[in-house]
Design a protein that fits this description.
The complex is a heterodimer of chains A (409) and B (230). Chain A has 409 residues and is α+β, with helices and mostly antiparallel strands. In chain A, 53% of the residues lie in helices and 17% in strands. Chain A has helices spanning 2-15, 19-56, 83-91, 124-127, 155-160, 196-201, 207-214, 234-243, 253-256, 258-296, 298-306, 311-341, 354-358, 372-398, 402-406, and strands at 62-65, 97-109, 114-122, 139-140, 151-154, 168-174, 180-191, 202-206, 222-226, 249-252, 348-349, 365-366. In chain A, the strands form 2 sheets. Chain A has a 6-stranded mixed β-barrel with strand order 2-3-8-5-7-6. A two-stranded antiparallel sheet of chain A has the order 11-12. The longest helix of chain A has 39 residues, at 258-296. With 230 residues, chain B is an alpha/beta fold. In chain B, 36% of the residues lie in helices and 30% in strands. Chain B contains 7 helices and 10 strands. Chain B has helices at residues 46-53, 76-86, 102-113, 117-130, 146-159, 176-193, 204-209; strands at residues 2-15, 18-31, 35-39, 61-66, 69-70, 87-90, 164-168, 196-201, 212-217, 220-226. In chain B, the strands form 2 sheets. A 6-stranded mixed β-sheet of chain B has the order 6-7-8-3-9-10. Chain B has a 4-stranded antiparallel β-sheet with strand order 2-1-4-5, covered by helices on one side. In chain B, strand 1 and strand 2 form a beta hairpin. The longest helix of chain B has 18 residues, at 176-193. The radius of gyration of chain B is 17 Å and the shape is globular. Classes of the chains: A alpha+beta (409), B alpha/beta (230). Chains A and B meet through helix 1, helix 11, helix 12 and helix 15 of A and helix 2 and helix 3 of B.
């Protein structure tokens, strides 16, 4: 312990012996740490937005379907039990939110054009906050009840179909007997979505209205359940599984959308690679600084060895010096990245590139996400790699012959 | 028991194409409490012998014993421990650690030895006062003269009261008054604490303090004088 105390004192004082060199290296570490953590926060925010948008684009955290629905998401594969039964089972389960839906492919036709869409028959009260649609920012109004006769379509679809609020469109799908099921709807609302692709893909109508159109009685296509956090989906999955029998399929969001699910894993790997790459750039400066520091102190290292300090203590001194520099730089860099994230944590408008990002399912607002786990990862990785990088100059210093070192000119 | 025993030491350095015999079959025995000066012209082998005794340099052949323990075959770590616990060093130049104050330099060896902070702090202050550096405890080497630095080095060498002190030209950078003061201090330690001194020097004033004077030339002992007897 007594040796550690002297090593710490020597390392700290030697660090500030050449103020300018240490300051330059410190700045490099601060900038490196800032870049690691801040850029990771941006990338995390980007991925989180993609995942959240993906989840809000109807998957929720867990969904229940007919076992064949994923292969054929048509009217033929409705959940084999009544909506009333499902409502009863899920009502008191304590989920953050849940809803049952009818979801079928359909064709929407205006007087000018027609498009293939996904028709969602929903209960607007259950769906509030569950989908990507902000009810309060809908042009016109959103659906008011399950038997609302109107339809709500996306702004982009409205432009594509050359239609507008108050006009009528025709929806066409198939009933369970494979007969055409169609009906005219008046457009009562036009919604706007962060991801403009959603505006073209989905249309909303009342659940009862759609059930009547499709002649499916009290049946639905899916149950969607929302938990506290999309990263912690297992408890929600287990509870949902317990609520339904074996004749349905329960899937997590990352199974429903494997691309979305894989993004988190890819992101974790990318963060690590990003941190290592930045460190490698830093390590050249770090090793150079240590080599210079050792070179300048050959004689006093020889003196310490001559006075009875063990080579391992010399090695420890150089390594501690390196770790002190890195720890200081990391602390400042981490604080700086936190301070940089604070003013923009409510979102950065990236709509200028929104059209391009849209194809990746990203919204026009980016919310940086500073995760403690990323901060810890960056700090630990840099300290471990810094320790390894400093071993070479430290080893060299510890293997000087005392008398040769002390007489070196 | 002998404080230092050297048996048939040989050491050859290669300088370009020429082999230089720094030690040529040197054998000496220094008793505990000895006060020995090694005197030689430059290149005569006195510093090489001193370094061999201190475990800082290994002889090509021969044996070195400190307090009866053979040291020329010890590992680096064992030699470091030996130097830390049993030998005090005063080098000709570059004696101090630049980032430590005078007091911290004096405390350095004790701290590595594991002496408690309170004890070593008090001891360091006392010894600095003894070498005439009272009031300069908190100065760093860069803020002290060469003589003051040398006295700090002496203070560090003697503060933990090692059985053997090896000094290489300890008065080289000192004025005559300071040099006399330092030698008086060495003799005082030698006489009152039975500390063995081996001093490499070509300073006649220093030689005058020695109980025993060993003259070397071309790596060989050419004269061994017991000055106390004479």
């Amino acid at each position: 312990m007594h040796r550690v105390a002297i090593l710490l004192r020597l390392a700290w004082r030697n660090l500030w012996r050449n103020h300018r060199r240490t300051a330059i290296m410190l700045m490099a570490v601060v900038l490196g740490a800032w870049a690691m953590i801040f850029m990771t926060a941006l990338m995390r925010g980007m991925v989180t937005e993609v995942v959240k948008d993906g989840i809000s684009a109807l998957p929720g955290h867990v969904q229940v379907h007919h076992p064949d629905f994923s292969d054929d998401p048509s009217i033929a594969n409705l959940i084999p039990r009544s909506d009333a039964d499902l409502q009863r089972r899920f009502a008191d389960a304590g989920f953050v939110q849940w809803a049952t839906r009818v979801r079928v492919p359909a064709v929407i036709t205006s007087e000018y054009d027609s498009r293939g869409v996904t028709l969602l028959g929903i209960d607007p009260q259950q769906e509030r906050g569950l989908t990507f649609v902000d009810y309060d920012s809908v042009d016109g109004r959103f659906l008011e009840s399950t038997d609302d006769p109107g339809i709500v379509i996306g702004a982009k679809l409205a432009r594509t179909l050359n239609t507008e609020l108050g006009k009528r469109i025709v929806l066409m799908s198939q009933d369970p007997d494979n007969d055409i099921a169609d009906r005219g709807f008046r457009i009562v609302g036009i919604f706007h979505a962060n991801v403009t692709a959603f505006e073209e893909a989905f249309v909303f109508a009342g659940k009862s209205t759609v059930q009547e159109l499709l002649r499916i009685g009290d049946r639905v296509s899916e149950v969607v359940v929302l938990g506290e956090d999309y990263r912690d989906v297992e408890p929600v999955y287990a509870r949902t599984l317990a609520l339904v029998d074996g004749d349905v399929k329960v899937e997590r969001w990352n199974e429903l959308d494997p691309y979305l699910g894989s993004m988190l894993g890819v992101m974790d790997g990318f963060v690590l690679v990003w941190i290592v790459v930045i460190f490698l750039a830093l390590s050249f400066g770090l090793v150079n600084t240590l080599v210079m520091a050792v070179f300048e102190r050959v004689r006093e290292i020889g003196l310490m060895l001559a006075l009875g300090m063990r080579p391992v203590n010399i090695l420890g001194q150089i390594v501690i010096e390196s770790l002190m520099l890195l720890a200081l730089g990391l602390a400042i860099g981490t604080a700086l990245s936190w301070a940089t994230v604070q003013p923009i944590k409510d979102g950065i408008d990236i709509s200028i590139v929104g059209e391009g990002l849209d194809m990746w399912g990203m919204s026009s607002t980016l919310y940086p996400e500073l995760l403690l786990s990323d901060v810890i990862l960056a700090n630990v990785v840099v300290l471990i790699l810094g320790f390894l990088a400093s071993l070479s100059p430290a080893w060299r210093a510890s293997h000087y012959e005392p008398i040769e070192a002390i007489t070196k000119v | 028991m002998s404080a230092v025993t050297c048996v048939d030491l040989c050491k050859t350095y290669r300088q370009g194409e020429v082999d230089i015999k720094a030690l040529d079959h040197v054998s000496i025995e220094i008793a505990e409490g000895g006060f020995v000066c090694l005197s030689a012209p430059s290149g005569g082998g006195k510093t090489t012998l001193l370094n061999a005794i201190g475990g800082l340099d290994k002889p090509d052949s021969g044996e070195v014993y400190i307090a009866g323990r053979r040291i020329d075959n010890l590992s680096k770590g064992e030699l470091a421990d030996l130097r830390l616990r049993q030998i005090g060093f005063v080098f000709q130049a570059f004696n101090l650690i630049p980032v430590l104050t005078a007091r911290e330099n004096v405390e350095f060896v004790m701290q590595v030895q594991g002496v408690p902070a309170a004890d070593r702090g008090q001891k360091a202050l006392e010894i600095l006062e003894e070498v005439g550096l009272e009031g300069l405890e908190d100065r760093r080497p860069a803020d002290m003269s060469g003589g003051q630095q040398q006295r700090v080095a002496v203070a560090r060498a003697i503060v933990s009261q090692p059985a053997l002190i090896l000094a290489d030209e300890p008065t080289a950078n000192l004025d005559s008054k300071t040099a006399d003061g330092l030698m008086d201090l060495f003799r005082h330690l030698n006489e009152h604490h039975n500390t063995t001194f081996v001093i490499a020097t070509h300073d006649k004033r220093v030689m005058a303090y020695a109980k025993r004077l060993i003259r070397m030339l071309d790596g060989r002992i050419v004269e061994d004088i017991d000055q106390d007897a004479s």
